[in-house]
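Take a protein:
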Amino acid sequence: MGMLASLISGLASGETVAAVRRARTAAIVYALAALAALCGLGFLVGAAYIWVAGRYGPMAACFGFGIGFLVIAGVLLLIYQLSAGARARRRARRRNADMKAVGITAALAILPTLLKGKGGLGTILGPAIALAAYAIYRENIKPDADDPDAGEAK
């Protein structure tokens, strides 16, 4: 409720409109700067081409620049593919940490309600003890040699 009131008061004061206007202006300035940088880069590539063509001939310059840009594209894709595994592991760790935080937060939020209820502490300890016992059981059983899925459990 407090966040909604903050949002409504921000809209009423015009602060949100000003923030959107600043963000839009910044986006336009960055887009124009990126366009100018790309044009500059294009002229530098053109100047390099003219210099190489004057030195080695236009056909050799075309082949050289074509092969050079294909190699750059290949290296960029190779680096991206090699780092994809690390990015996926980082996303999985972040997702697990977020899920743990959500679980802990939910447990802490419901804890006072459970402690006040009829079952009291037993309501919490019963399932927790059962879960711990099951985890200990799963940890100590030996996998079945005939079970093809036995190695995949962990």
Q: What stands out?
A: The longest helix spans residues 58-116. The chain has a mean pLDDT of 80. The two ends are 44 Å apart (CA to CA). The CA atoms of residues 4 and 11 lie 11 Å apart.
